[in-house]
Write a structure and sequence with these properties.
This protein is an alpha/beta fold. The chain contains 12 helices and 18 strands. Helix content is 35%, strand content 21%. Helix 5 packs across helix 7 and helix 10 runs antiparallel to helix 11.
């Protein structure tokens, strides 16, 4: 996770769920009254009432359509600037408010997510937000079909984890508060949790969390794991491991490069640079722990990167990677205490070659 955030106070934005609720309210108001409210104000779960300008307002033969442009604030959100549209039309008698996936919104195809297989990927909280916005137009809602569309969403979804989670055909409509907090970790950690849920619901007994694409590809080759067994852990080792303790599988592999695994070995569960740099002095002490002499330890202390320390140790046939993996195993196992999960740690170099390994053992 590179942190390229702008300087100064960061501007918050709105989730796709909030945008969908605003568009749906405007479309339903037009269906009932013939006029599109612009801007359209909606209630959010926290009690605020933002207003959204309409980018689309269109009467349809059987209903109405409205759309708003998503503003994610200063967050580097893949959906910033997309058009979120809602079409509202009468539904079948007794159907209540039902939801449809329009172009660019995905459909759930695997169990383990908060929605049943076959449902449009409009999450439960956005559905409640949409219903609350509609109820401001008319207290006693009739039977309605609400279709959410995000033009271009199918292509954008390839830049998300939706395909791996089994959400096909487009993006998800997300957001529990309606507000995007710039550079929040919450969305990534939630995706980690959903990945674990999907793996468990698919009957997998082994998952692997990797810090990046190189280690993910390497660990997949190592164990022959299917895509749904790969968890995009990134820097959030703690977020993954603590969720696994509550929702266990039989075996877990933690995989990463020497720098990230050094941080884990040193006791950090947040592996991002904001939590601190790689402690090269600690790594030099590990060189001494595996029998490196004073000259070698001094070289390690003077190194610029963890990879350089690894190369120094390898040149003297010292298994530094294995020792780092064992220390990382100890840190990771502490987060899995009592789960009965068999844990493995694998350290890869930049070419995806194993340079350190702590084999499977039960974590507490």
């Amino acid at each position: 996770m590179d942190d390229d955030r702008p300087s100064g106070p960061l501007r918050r934005g709105w989730t796709t769920g909030a945008c969908a609720a605003a568009a749906a309210k405007a479309a339903y108001a037009a269906l009932r009254t013939g006029a599109f409210p612009d801007p359209v104000e909606i209630p959010l779960p926290g009690g605020t009432r933002p207003a959204f300008a309409l980018a689309v307002s269109e009467r349809l033969p059987e209903g109405a359509r409205a759309g708003v442009i998503k503003d994610a604030g200063d967050d580097p959100d893949v959906t910033h600037g997309v058009l979120v549209q809602a079409s509202v039309r009468p539904g079948l008698p007794g159907s209540g408010v039902s939801f449809r996936a329009g172009p660019g919104v995905g459909t759930v195809t695997r169990p383990g997510l908060p929605l049943p297989v076959g449902e449009p990927a409009i999450n439960p909280m956005p559905r409640r937000m949409i219903a609350a916005a509609l109820a401001e137009v008319e207290d006693r809602l009739p039977d309605l079909v609400v279709e959410i569309a995000i033009p271009g969403g199918e292509a954008l979804a390839q830049r998300t984890l939706n395909p791996r989670l089994g959400i096909l055909g487009g993006l998800s409509v997300l957001g529990t508060t309606g507000v995007v907090v710039p550079y929040s970790c919450a969305a990534w950690i939630d995706t980690i949790h959903r990945g674990i849920d999907v793996a468990r619901a698919s009957g997998l007994t082994h998952v692997a969390g990797a810090t990046g694409s190189t280690s993910e590809e390497a660990v997949q080759r190592l164990h022959g794991l299917p895509p749904e067994g790969l968890i995009d852990m990134g820097d959030f080792a703690g977020g993954m491991l603590k969720y696994l303790r509550r929702h266990p599988v039989a075996r877990v592999t933690v995989a990463g490069g020497i720098a990230k695994m050094t941080k884990l070995g040193h006791g950090l569960l947040d592996l991002h640079s904001r939590a601190g740099p790689v402690d090269l002095a600690w790594l030099a002490e590990r060189v001494a722990e595996i029998g490196g002499g004073a000259d070698l330890v001094a070289q390690a202390r003077g190194a610029n990167t963890a990879l350089e320390v690894l190369r120094i140790a390898q040149a003297s046939d010292l298994p530094l990677g294995d020792l780092v993996a064992r220390h990382a195993w100890t840190t990771a196992a502490s987060s899995l205490a009592g789960s009965g999960i068999a844990l493995e740690v694998v350290v890869f170099d930049r070419d995806g070659i194993v340079v350190g390994h702590a084999p499977f053992r039960t974590a507490g």
